[in-house]
Amino acid sequence: MSRVGFVGLGNMGGPMAANLAKAGHAVDVFDLMPAALAKAEAAGCASAGSAVNALANAEVFFSMLPAGRHVAGLYLGSDGQDGLLAQVPDGAILVDCSTIDPATAKRVAAAAAERGIAMLDAPVSGGTAGAENGTLTFMVGGASETLEAVRPLFDAMGANLFHAGDAGAGQTAKVCNNMLLAVHMAGTAEALALGVSQGLDPAALSEIMRQSSGGNWSLEVYNPYPGVMEGVPASREYQGGFLVDLMTKDLGLAMDTAESSGAPVPMGGLARNLYRMHAAQNNAGQLDFSSIQQLFEPKSST
Amino acid sequence: MSRVGFVGLGNMGGPMAANLAKAGHAVDVFDLMPAALAKAEAAGCASAGSAVNALANAEVFFSMLPAGRHVAGLYLGSDGQDGLLAQVPDGAILVDCSTIDPATAKRVAAAAAERGIAMLDAPVSGGTAGAENGTLTFMVGGASETLEAVRPLFDAMGANLFHAGDAGAGQTAKVCNNMLLAVHMAGTAEALALGVSQGLDPAALSEIMRQSSGGNWSLEVYNPYPGVMEGVPASREYQGGFLVDLMTKDLGLAMDTAESSGAPVPMGGLARNLYRMHAAQNNAGQLDFSSIQQLFEPKSST
Amino acid sequence: MSRVGFVGLGNMGGPMAANLAKAGHAVDVFDLMPAALAKAEAAGCASAGSAVNALANAEVFFSMLPAGRHVAGLYLGSDGQDGLLAQVPDGAILVDCSTIDPATAKRVAAAAAERGIAMLDAPVSGGTAGAENGTLTFMVGGASETLEAVRPLFDAMGANLFHAGDAGAGQTAKVCNNMLLAVHMAGTAEALALGVSQGLDPAALSEIMRQSSGGNWSLEVYNPYPGVMEGVPASREYQGGFLVDLMTKDLGLAMDTAESSGAPVPMGGLARNLYRMHAAQNNAGQLDFSSIQQLFEPKSST
Amino acid sequence: MSRVGFVGLGNMGGPMAANLAKAGHAVDVFDLMPAALAKAEAAGCASAGSAVNALANAEVFFSMLPAGRHVAGLYLGSDGQDGLLAQVPDGAILVDCSTIDPATAKRVAAAAAERGIAMLDAPVSGGTAGAENGTLTFMVGGASETLEAVRPLFDAMGANLFHAGDAGAGQTAKVCNNMLLAVHMAGTAEALALGVSQGLDPAALSEIMRQSSGGNWSLEVYNPYPGVMEGVPASREYQGGFLVDLMTKDLGLAMDTAESSGAPVPMGGLARNLYRMHAAQNNAGQLDFSSIQQLFEPKSST
Fold first, then answer.
1. How far is B1 from chain A (nearest CA, A)?
2. What is the full DSSP assignment across chain A?
3. CB–CB of A180 and B209 under 8 A?
4. Which among A163, A247, C40, D287 could disulfide-bond with D238, CB atoms 3.0 to 4.6 Å apart, if both were Cys?
5. ipTM of this model?
6. In this complex, do C280 and A296 lie within 8 Å of one another by their Cβ atoms?
């Protein structure tokens, strides 16, 4: 069993820390929100009082924060000197599970490397359900041996683990994956709307494309057309799931990443703007991202 | 066994007719090209001398032609009176396997229905290899009982059979599927190029996305990045496969179909124009459609 | 003064014929709608009873019809033999002012040329107000000498006359112009919405861009933002003007034209799909095309 | 006459400072490049030895730097404390002429305002020729009275002066304008390529659209088609002018700005990606931005 630190106990980080505790690890946790702390304590974690304290005795230290500036602030501090990196116990491994821009991930990992500290970027997919059920997917950037050292802890929180490459590669892989997800979801919604506009049954068309060369994850497990698939957001008025606002945020990371290496991303760029228009036209920021289907449907003209 | 007529013996129609003959059916064939006729005769078909003759004794009559105007010309004639519809034997079923616009398919089927003739539109996917190996996929529009009557013949030529709906629905399903295919292929190529521009290995990134929510048919069996997957066009300089010019033609049908019902298809429309630009910039009309990967890669500046 | 025939007396053709009569020409008219005929007679035209009769004594014969199929039907007939081309008086000039696809315009002009008949394609811009005030713009395809022969009649109906090139070139020029118009209108609306989202005053931003390198016709005379410019559709809730449905139709012609010569039109293609989405999301088909502004504005969430 | 400080003497800043000196103002300058300093001294400026010294006696202080991080670094310092803001003489006005993201401009101006310092953001357009000839356009954000106080200095460097609004509005206006410029330039290139693919003469089509509703700045003074207009980059193989790499940078600012207020910018986003693809396909980063024309032209296939 390991001694673990965990900072950031939100909808994702909270259940992840709880799963580590459930697997028998000693988990020192910190969060700014008392309620989140209380929940983690109830799940068997120990409240450490501060991020520094959560790190103090850790063999592996996890962070799960909203954005790149929080991650840079935590590890580097405001002036690059007063962050956690200056306080890492000998031999401890840092694992940032936040979804942030690859550039910040590389910068923080490089600062850690300068001090001889092993660090991984390990963003997740799978949503809050995956966090609670311990079935997350981790996309990991950093050294293989570091990943292997942390593997048992990943296993306690997730079902799939991918090594994407060096520092920052986990973030890049997630950014690429989610951009492609947005593209095929928008494309699927558009194809279904086209078929329906020509009189086809959306379920029949979905099944044909799923088994043919149009096949993709959206058609397989996350059909965006209402009434075609049970148990998905499309069949409960797009409540829950992966919110449009979060997809738009991830697409913003993809655009920033493309900017930094000059890569053309026309399909991803259009998908991002369709999501923006959908949010504006349909007040859809808090709906599941498969609700992009609505952008292709005629409004009634009453 | 059935008595079958077959008109249009090109790269697709020729092997399809041959598979019908191989399955023991009597196949009367016609094509304007003597070489195609000779090949069909060598495969056990009987040359009928004309389309009318190929139809004369048929229980089921197949056509496999390049475009909507050929199909309309064959069945309706130039003035709507002198086409094959006027010569159909009692009880014979017509099956058009051409990939054409749904509007023409509906128009011809409606003219057949007026004369009490049962007709199916049944475009295929699977390419010339699928036609030769008898593993095509058929997407069928028309009455269920007509489809069932023809099923044994479809089985002799293909591995998958989908009933998409009423007359024209087979064409619509194919148009929707291929538009979605173009979208996720372009999106996949773009995501891979983005990852590679950030230093990721294309094979590692492909595998991660394939198993994650970015998963789609391109990643599963038709990876567009050179060297990632064996036996696909990307690994033989995009020779063979499904040509850019054919994908562009199918996307043209998708745009026409969208026009006819006023459906917005922004992702499909952009994919179509990316394919056009790819053809123009890279002289790529005769390359496989996964070569769209090239449009996202920097040219060397030597 | 000339003896003129005129077929197609709708919102555009009616006032055009009236202006010819007002200029002193003898105008024989025909339309299927009795009300349109009555109005033309009240304006000084003579009802000819049929298209053939309107042509019978004409030195110059004009047509103003909704789409390519009507133009082909009128001049070529259903079988290419029974159209007006067979009845053209010696030396008479044909002028089609309809906005149609360049391919049909070229086909009809070629059939005329085979019979030794001079023909122009001369689509107009300027809307119903331009038709009534005699201030239309004509974009003309065909021989220069034919254009010169008709010039006095064009002058009676319009303020601007451009010779675009050979047969069909008038249609192509109009298609290109209107595609560019859709692009800069959408781009202008988007730029204004971006500025406003950042707190800028739309009038100040409009004026800056109008005088800078962003300057275009939309900013000059047709500002899409409500309240910025007086007397434009944006300042009367987008009533009147050039309807979204008509712009969408013209963009459809542009897409068909691009298809026929394999030209990539990514910006025009996206503009077309934005217009489609606008029509669907905002039930905007009958609003002025500058209402695309609405597609970029957040809906209130009450 | 005023006492002026000027920091950043590159291709733009150098001639701007020189024009201030030529107009009789006392100009204290600083740049990291000795050659740039020497040139400014030759033009009548006084080398101040440091940015702080250039500011020390200034009534108005100008900066002209490459990007937002340089501007923030100059005025705020690395920790927000050690920047120039702490050294501004009583009553001196700060004017940042750099083209940067509006968010940074607002942040720096807010920090200045906290200290009671008046500041303007005043990005320019007009290129190096405009800087040398004193014909720049300034788009200014900040208080009207501050703008009026600086007006004589702006007049010494430029021909046009626009007040866009409050702090940051100058940057926002420039971002909006340049995004719209990219859109209508790409749209113009695409429309010309479509016309040419149909046999039209690019000069004739340009003239028709220029005088019609397609009219825009590109057609008016900066035609992208080779051979149509004299003296523009298109007629000298796209050498000189406003580089693709700079347009791409400005479009990156536009995307960041859109991100910050959630505005949908589909046309601008596509234009940005077309420019990226053009740079990649045609190695065009150092060509004038009107070279986007090349992206729409078929390559010869020899």
1. 29
2. --EEEEE--STTHHHHHHHHHHTT-EEEEE-S-HHHHHHHHHTT-EE-SSHHHHHHT-SEEEE--SSHHHHHHHHH-TTSSSSGGGGPPTT-EEEE-S---HHHHHHHHHHHHHTT-EEEE--EESHHHHHHHT-EEEEEES-HHHHHHHHHHHHHHEEEEEEEESTTHHHHHHHHHHHHHHHHHHHHHHHHHHHHHTT--HHHHHHHHHHSTT-BHHHHH---STTTSTTSGGGGTT-SSSBHHHHHHHHHHHHHHHHHHT---HHHHHHHHHHHHHHHHH--TTSBGGGGGGGGSPPP--
3. yes
4. D287
5. 0.94
6. yes
